[in-house]
């Protein structure tokens, strides 16, 4: 079964850190670039970060540059998003995505 399963979300205070994980299965993970998106109710989905198949190239939204780091472990079929210095505006549901395939999402809430 082809699927992506995110984990690691929750509640964190402003300035805190959180690490999201995404477990992939059912496809040749190392052959695909991977992305993290986020979305809040009533807004467009935002591409947060992307990583190439080998992990040597990454891209970030301007809003998260210098604070978020995307990485992957092809041996474990997993992609990660390390989020530091979190801000209330980072509050969203975060999705791991490969093309049109995405997981169920994980809620990240940044609040005092």
Q: Strands, helices and their partners?
A:
Layout (H helix, E strand, L loop, with lengths): L2 E5 L2 E3 L5 E8 L8 E6 L6 E6 L6 E3 L7 E6 L4 E6 L8 E7 L2 E2 L3 E5 L2
Parallel strand pairs: 2-11
Antiparallel strand pairs: 1-3, 3-8, 4-5, 4-9, 5-6, 7-8, 9-10, 9-11
Main pleated sheet: 7 strands, mixed
**Gyration radius from CA atoms, angstroms:** 13 Å
Secondary-structure-derived class: mainly beta
Shape: globular
Query: In total, how many beta strands?
Result: 11
Report the portion of residues in β strands.
Answer: over 45%
Instruction: List the uncertain runs.
Output: none
Distance between the termini: 39 Å
Helix content: under 10%
Number of helices: 0
Mean pLDDT: 97
Sketch the topology as an H/E string, one letter per element. Answer: EEEEEEEEEEE
Describe, in plain words, how this protein is organized in 3D.
With 112 residues, the chain is an all-beta fold. It has no helices and 11 strands. The protein has strands at 3-7, 10-12, 18-25, 34-39, 46-51, 58-60, 68-73, 78-83, 92-98, 101-102, 106-110. Strands 2, 4, 5, 6, 9, 10 and 11 form a 7-stranded mixed sheet that branches.
């Amino acid at each position: 079964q082809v699927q992506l399963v995110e984990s690691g979300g929750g509640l964190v205070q402003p300035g805190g850190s959180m690490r999201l994980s995404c477990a992939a299965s059912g496809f040749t993970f190392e052959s695909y670039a991977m992305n993290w998106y986020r979305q809040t109710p009533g807004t467009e989905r935002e591409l947060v970060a992307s990583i190439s198949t080998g992990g040597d190239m990454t891209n970030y939204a301007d809003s998260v540059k210098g604070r978020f780091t995307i990485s992957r472990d092809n041996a474990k079929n997993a992609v990660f998003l390390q989020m530091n210095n979190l801000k209330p505006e980072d509050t969203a549901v975060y999705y791991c995505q490969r093309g049109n395939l995405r997981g169920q999402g994980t809620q990240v809430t940044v609040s005092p």
